């Protein structure tokens, strides 16, 4: 793949996950080290702290959030849609500036999920759908992969 890609910062080993941990993938961390990938965390970029309360989308997926038809909530009932959308839009600006054509994002996250997210009940129930950042990048024509299927990108 020519050109830079975006990657979820937690996959590159940054401790930006809601619980203060990361989801290190050594191959993705190496891409960042070599300057081939740009690590981004939309939730931190939108102004949320780390650690933070778990959040899920209720009423749809990231595409619906962008359309204004669904919202993101934390597990104490606070609406955090504004921060999620603001962070995703900032990252879209970076993607445009850098001419990014592809991204590898953390599966099942309400921001980064590519094929699946959680259903908004905080009971660990997965549903098909994209996170807010994943949806915004896909709408821009950027190819989105997760840590579970990005080998396709390397072929
Ligand atoms: Fe990782 Fe994305 Fe969650 Fe940030 S928002 S911790 S990059 S999955």
| Strand residue percentage | 15-25%
Query: Please, what is the average pLDDT?
Result: 97
Give me the number of helical elements: 6
- List all distinct small molecules, including ions and cofactors, that are bound in this structure: iron/sulfur cluster
State the distance separating the first and last CA atoms: 8 Å
Low-confidence stretches: none
Name the strands of the widest sheet in spatial order: 2-1-5-8
Gross morphology is globular
Largest sheet composition = 4 strands, parallel
**Could you give the order of the helices and strands?**
EHEHEHEHEEEHEH
Compute the gyration radius: what is it? 14 Å
Overview of this structure, please?
It is built from six helices and eight strands. The longest helix is centred in the middle third of the chain and has 18 residues, at 81-98. It starts with a strand and ends with a helix. The chain has helices at residues 26-33, 42-45, 62-67, 81-98, 132-139, 151-154, and strands at residues 5-8, 37-40, 55-58, 71-74, 102-105, 116-118, 126-128, 143-146. It has a four-stranded parallel β-sheet, sandwiched between helices. It has a two-stranded antiparallel sheet with strand order 3-4. Strands 6-7 form a two-stranded antiparallel ribbon. Helix 1 links the parallel strand 1 and strand 2. It is of the alpha/beta class. Bound molecules: iron/sulfur cluster. Iron/sulfur cluster binds next to helix 2.
Please outline what is shown here.
This protein is an alpha/beta fold and 155 residues long. The chain has helices at 26-33, 42-45, 62-67, 81-98, 132-139, 151-154, and strands at 5-8, 37-40, 55-58, 71-74, 102-105, 116-118, 126-128, 143-146.
């Amino acid at each position: 793949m020519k050109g830079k890609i975006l990657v979820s910062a937690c996959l590159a080993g940054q401790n930006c996950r809601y619980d203060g941990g990361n989801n290190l993938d050594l191959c993705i961390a190496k891409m960042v080290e070599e300057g081939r990938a740009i690590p981004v965390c939309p939730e931190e970029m939108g102004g949320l702290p780390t650690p933070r309360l778990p959040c899920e989308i209720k009423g749809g997926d990231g595409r619906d959030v962008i359309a204004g038809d669904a919202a993101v909530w934390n597990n104490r009932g606070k609406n955090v849609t504004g921060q999620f959308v603001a962070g995703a839009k900032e990252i879209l600006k970076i993607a445009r500036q850098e001419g990014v054509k592809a991204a590898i994002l953390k599966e099942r996250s309400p921001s980064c999920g590519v094929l699946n997210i959680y259903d908004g009940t905080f009971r660990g129930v997965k549903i098909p759908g994209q996170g807010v950042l994943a949806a915004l990048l896909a709408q821009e024509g950027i190819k989105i992969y997760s840590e579970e299927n990005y080998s396709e990108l390397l072929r």
